[in-house]
Amino acid sequence: MAKGKKAKVKNKKKKNKNGLGLVAFLKSVWKELKKVNWPSRKELIQHTGVVIVSIAIVAIVVWIMDLGLSSILNMILG
């Protein structure tokens, strides 16, 4: 029984070497992509705006912290 399982594994490996495994993988990926619920154009623009605003806020906070820490460091090192 164990030999039969090993033979099946070897056959699968041979298919992968020939590229048949890749074709099957790409077909399954394409099927899954058809199932995806893609956002509408309006939703995509809204979500992109939220991401850009969030990045800007984080950048401003980091910039303010950098200014504060650098001024403290300049006062210490003088």
TrEMBL record:
<dbReference type="GO" id="GO:0009306">
    <property type="term" value="P:protein secretion"/>
</dbReference>
<dbReference type="GO" id="GO:0005886">
    <property type="term" value="C:plasma membrane"/>
</dbReference>
<keyword id="KW-0813">Transport</keyword>
<dbReference type="GO" id="GO:0043952">
    <property type="term" value="P:protein transport by the Sec complex"/>
</dbReference>
<dbReference type="InterPro" id="IPR001901">
    <property type="entry name" value="Translocase_SecE/Sec61-g"/>
</dbReference>
<comment type="subunit">
    <text>Component of the Sec protein translocase complex. Heterotrimer consisting of SecY, SecE and SecG subunits. The heterotrimers can form oligomers, although 1 heterotrimer is thought to be able to translocate proteins. Interacts with the ribosome. Interacts with SecDF, and other proteins may be involved. Interacts with SecA.</text>
</comment>
<feature type="transmembrane region" description="Helical">
    <location>
        <begin position="47"/>
        <end position="69"/>
    </location>
</feature>
<protein>
    <recommendedName>
        <fullName>Protein translocase subunit SecE</fullName>
    </recommendedName>
</protein>
<comment type="similarity">
    <text>Belongs to the SecE/SEC61-gamma family.</text>
</comment>
<keyword id="KW-0472">Membrane</keyword>
<dbReference type="GO" id="GO:0008320">
    <property type="term" value="F:protein transmembrane transporter activity"/>
</dbReference>
<dbReference type="GO" id="GO:0065002">
    <property type="term" value="P:intracellular protein transmembrane transport"/>
</dbReference>
<dbReference type="InterPro" id="IPR005807">
    <property type="entry name" value="SecE_bac"/>
</dbReference>
<keyword id="KW-1133">Transmembrane helix</keyword>
<comment type="function">
    <text>Essential subunit of the Sec protein translocation channel SecYEG. Clamps together the 2 halves of SecY. May contact the channel plug during translocation.</text>
</comment>
<keyword id="KW-0653">Protein transport</keyword>
<keyword id="KW-0812">Transmembrane</keyword>
<keyword id="KW-0811">Translocation</keyword>
<dbReference type="Pfam" id="PF00584">
    <property type="entry name" value="SecE"/>
</dbReference>
<keyword id="KW-1003">Cell membrane</keyword>
<dbReference type="InterPro" id="IPR038379">
    <property type="entry name" value="SecE_sf"/>
</dbReference>
<dbReference type="GO" id="GO:0006605">
    <property type="term" value="P:protein targeting"/>
</dbReference>
